[in-house]
Amino acid sequence: MVNGIKRIGVLTSGGDAPGMNAAIRGVVRAALSEGLEVYGIFDGYYGLI
Q1: pLDDT at 49
Q2: Domain named Phosphofructokinase: which ranges (predicted)?
């Protein structure tokens, strides 16, 4: 893992997509196993504002 990264945000652009839940779960589990904090960003890109 890159040194200095301690937190990540998980964002999807919206809409239904097959396998999205599994993909997000995989990202979160991998990040947690690396000791990162994971934040979910609600409402797609609007959630960034």
Answers
A1: 81
A2: 7-49
